[in-house]
């Protein structure tokens, strides 16, 4: 069951928002206190309330609680602030794409902890024990969840950080600006962190580097910190819905050893690191990248270890890598190619007549430049292996369409120099296609 708290006012922020509360089957205040998870972007969390697409967390919880894999728990979806979302989810630096952006993360933190949680605890009999209180979010919601858990671990002892927006890459120059803080001491008790391999400018590298940093703080891999790299996953609610169950099982479930390992072949370049952690799966269905796996490889010359299940190309060649976790083992092949860790992407986009001359045109989030009437071009050197969604757009919900009126978007894995040419036949109408319209 989902209850909607309409127009919840915040003194700290001076605004209102809806809050969606999932109650487990048979919820009874007398049976409390219940564990609780607080989720960002709450209007996209539950299938039974809010907007589509969603994470469908209510369906996931019904399933896992019903099968006895999770204890009954309360999930609180806190709606974002719309066009001021970036402000509230920023602690360290204003959202770089918004010239009006300011940091209101501390105010949002005050709202959650001092204003909202007391109401939730009183009304729904949820715990105040940090060991059973989680914060969870994706993208910028992942960023703020990470900061909340490390700034206030006495409140949020558990954290799920999905596809976090840690580094802003300028869509034209690719210049990077960090928007997160690296804490020097441990924070929450347990952390889930993940990223998809087809998320474009939300690249795997910064997320994997943060996971390595947390392991350096003493978090035990595959125990206190569980990480998942899903190579084919895009930056989208459907992908987060698919991973939410594993995150919740890590935070609230019963730990156990993996029952199977799997892995695919990979390639890297000289001087480039490659994540070779096998995918482990527990009996309860929790899937994660086994960062603690023991690695061996033959021949030794092409590769060297540079972190937890991270191998760097040393010289061109082919190596057979064996990953072991307990009694389980899996073998993969890694090819090291000659050349540096990046490759050229050259893109030409032909747009239809009537496209405004001053309208920016993006390919997979990368900004192109008009070089002739109706022709836009861009060239960038991107890390080998980065996944791009292949979309063309002019901003929020204004997507490039093909001759059949279907949004353009052929995903590509950028593993070598390539030239791409795309023709846009028409543009979608952002007002018509905006899922927030009228909400």
UniProtKB/TrEMBL annotation:
One of its GO terms (molecular function) is hydrolase activity. Keywords: Hydrolase. InterPro entries: AB_hydrolase_fold, Esterase-like, Mycobacterial_A85_antigen. Signal peptide: none annotated. SUPFAM superfamilies: alpha/beta-Hydrolases. Gene3D superfamilies: alpha/beta hydrolase (3.40.50.1820). This is Alpha/beta hydrolase. The lineage of its organism: Bacteria, Bacillati, Actinomycetota, Actinomycetes, Streptosporangiales.
């Amino acid at each position: 069951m989902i209850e909607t708290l309409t127009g919840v006012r915040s003194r700290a922020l001076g605004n209102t928002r809806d809050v969606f509360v999932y109650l487990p089957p048979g919820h009874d205040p007398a049976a409390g206190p219940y564990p609780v998870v607080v989720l960002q972007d709450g209007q996209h969390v539950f299938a039974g309330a809010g907007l589509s697409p969603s994470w469908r967390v209510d369906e996931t919880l019904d399933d896992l609680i019903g099968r006895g894999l999770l204890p009954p728990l309360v999930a609180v979806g806190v709606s974002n602030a719309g066009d001021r979302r970036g402000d509230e989810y920023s602690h360290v630096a204003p959202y770089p794409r918004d010239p009006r952006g300011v940091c209101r993360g501390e105010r949002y933190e005050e709202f959650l902890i001092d204003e909202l949680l007391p109401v939730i605890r009183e009304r729904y009999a949820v715990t105040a024990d940090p060991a059973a209180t989680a914060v969870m979010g994706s993208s910028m919601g992942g960023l703020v969840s990470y900061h909340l858990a490390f700034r206030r671990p006495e409140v949020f002892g558990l954290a799920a950080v999905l596809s976090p927006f840690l580094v802003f890459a300028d869509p034209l120059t690719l210049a990077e600006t960090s928007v997160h803080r690296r804490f020097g001491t441990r924070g929450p008790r347990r952390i889930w962190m993940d990223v998809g391999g087809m998320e474009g400018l939300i690249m795997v590298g910064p997320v994997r580097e943060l996971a390595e940093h947390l392991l350096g703080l003493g978090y035990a891999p595959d125990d206190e910190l569980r990480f998942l790299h899903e190579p084919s996953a895009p930056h989208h609610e459907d992908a987060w819905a698919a991973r939410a169950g594993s995150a919740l099982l890590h935070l609230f479930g019963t730990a156990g050893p993996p029952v199977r390992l799997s892995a695919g072949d990979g390639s890297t370049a000289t001087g480039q690191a490659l994540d070779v952690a096998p995918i482990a799966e527990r009996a309860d269905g929790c899937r994660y990248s086994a960062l603690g796996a023991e690695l061996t490889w033959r021949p030794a010359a092409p590769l060297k270890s540079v972190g937890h299940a991270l191998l760097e190309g040393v010289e061109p060649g082919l190596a057979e890598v064996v990953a072991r976790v307990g009694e389980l083992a899996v073998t993969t092949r890694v090819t090291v190619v000659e050349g540096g860790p990046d490759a050229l992407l050259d893109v030409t986009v032909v747009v239809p007549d009537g496209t405004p001359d001053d309208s920016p045109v993006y390919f997979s989030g990368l900004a192109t430049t008009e070089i002739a009437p109706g022709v836009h071009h861009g060239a960038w050197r991107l890390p080998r292996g980065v996944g791009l969604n292949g979309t063309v757009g002019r901003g929020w919900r204004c997507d490039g369409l093909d001759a059949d009126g279907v949004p353009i978007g052929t995903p590509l894995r950028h593993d070598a120099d390539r030239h791409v040419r795309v023709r846009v036949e028409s543009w979608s109408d952002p007002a018509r296609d905006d899922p927030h319209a009228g909400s």
